[in-house]
Amino acid sequence: MVARSAFSLKDLSVSVWRGFLSRCAKGDDNVFYTPSEMVLDHAGGNATAKHMLVHFHRLPILYFPFVIFPKLAMSERQVFFSPTIGFGDQWGVNFHLPFYWNIAPQRDATFVPITWPSRR
To answer: If both were cysteines, with which of 49, 66, 76, 81 could 35 make a disulfide (CB 3.0 to 4.6 Å apart)?
Structure first.
């Protein structure tokens, strides 16, 4: 994460303004996220983002007014993870939206629906 400014708050959380998030390799930022404000809550183990845009090749394609990133401890949770958008010469544009389901204390599953509009 890169931000224009970040502030530590009294409750051990960090407030980030005008952030830039990417899961791509450095210098290959085909898909990235730009929240106007993000709060990283270390005590609660989660993060929230306001006014987040998802960019694909620098073009904003999705807008989320408010996003909650779930806790790292996933007990008793069913959540969607961050989507992944990719592009390749062979497969075209693809979209992954992982879903985590904690079935029981000793059982869980992650489902990843994938769209591939063109297969050659």
So the answer is: 49
For 32-48, the pLDDT digits (tens) are 888 888 887 877 777 88
- CA dist., res. 6 & res. 114, Å (int): 35
Rounded Cα–Cα distance for residues 12 and 36 (Å): 20
7 shares its domain with 56: yes
Sign of the Cα torsion 87, 79, 72, 51 reads positive
pTM: 0.52
> Which letter, b or e, does each residue of 70-103 get, where b requires 16 or more Cβ atoms within 10 Å of its Cβ?
eeeeeeeeeeeeeeebbeeeeeeebeeeeebeee
Co-location of 51 and 26 in the same domain: yes
**Whether residue 93 is found in the same domain as residue 41:** no
